[in-house]
Amino acid sequence: MTSTLSDAFISHPIHIPLSNLPDFKSLRHLPDSYTWTPKDDLLFSASDSDESLPFIDLSDPHVAARVGHACTTWGAFQITNHGVPSRLLDHIEFLTGSLFRLPVQRKLKAARSENGISGYGVARIASFFNKQMWSEGFTVIGSPLDDFHKLWPRHHLKYCQNFN
Fold first, then answer.
1. Would you state the pLDDT for residue 118?
2. What is the maximal distance between C-alpha atoms in the chain?
3. What value does the mean pLDDT of the chain take?
4. What pLDDT does residue 63 have?
5. Phi then psi for 78, rounded to 5 degrees?
6. Closest to 55 (Cα-Cα) out of 27, 30, 86, 79
7. 99: exposed, middle or buried (C-beta count within 10 Å: 0-12, 13-18, 19+)?
């Protein structure tokens, strides 16, 4: 039995070669490997619901129950009234955009290892599907210093300071 997330990733490595990631900026059409038909997407094709992702107000006295319900029914939710200043959220969005606008080969310098947690790569759940997911991700656990140094060798300290 695993005791930490790191242990779980070590015992269940992801085997998706990062070298196969497309250059999202240069593609002119969607490759077949990314085209999902209804039979490829059983989870969502079975639902004809008009429901949308739950919004949860942190000032709601029943917030814990609402989070629990959203997790068991949706697996995700969006928080409102969290108290995080809009200016900070805008800055984080700018930093995130700066990272994902980098060329793929540059982002691969901070690639997550097969059994790693932090770094650039595809979603860890991608290996459970027959089709590829049109996504990329960057996970930060702890300090981003090492990964940011690989991405922005001359400006990594500025990005780390802004990120923290």
1. 87
2. 50
3. 81
4. 97
5. -120, 135
6. 79
7. buried
In terms of average pLDDT, the best of 4-13, 17-26, 120-129, 152-161 is 152-161
Range list of β-strands (E), 48-145: 55-57, 78-80, 119-121, 137-139
At residue 68, the pLDDT reads: 96
Q: At what angle do helices 86-100 and 156-163 cross, to 10 degrees?
A: 140
Q: What are the beta bridge partners of residue 111?
A: 120
DSSP 77-142: -EEES----HHHHHHHHHHHHHHHTS-HHHHGGGBPPTT-SSEEES-GGGGGSSS--S--EEE--S
Contact at 8 Å (CB) between 123 and 133? yes
Look at the chain and count its residues. Answer: 164
Which token pair is 158? 């500025």
